[in-house]
Amino acid sequence: MSGKNELQQMKNRLDKCKNKLAAAKTRGDASVIRQFEDEINKLNKRIAQVNHKQSFDLNKERKALLAMPFQREITKLEQADMGKLKKRVKGLVVVHPMTKVGKALKLDVVTGFAPKEF
């Protein structure tokens, strides 16, 4: 399961637990209240771990791209035939500005990162 789906399922489960906790508090059922409070704490901790892991991985990828010695904007003509460009330049990584990595790098245009000039 992808991290995005896993995170969404945990948030949905957290929301259900919060609703059930509110209902248990109105009934005054102490054992159920304690059970849902424990479940909510576990879910919050797990959600924080997944968020931290995602940000760590994104930062690691961002640093790897910035460490590449050459980067430049990919022209519209090159974007039209991306396969040809990738065959010509070994190790090319193309980043779109609307992806998570592109936003982390604060890109305005489609940019290519490569170990050598292209």
From TrEMBL:
Keywords: Coiled coil. Residues 7-53 form a coiled coil. Pfam families: DUF2810. Gene3D superfamilies: Uncharacterised protein PF10928, DUF2810. NCBIfam families: PRK11020.1 (NF008244). This is YibL family ribosome-associated protein. It comes from Vibrio gelatinilyticus.
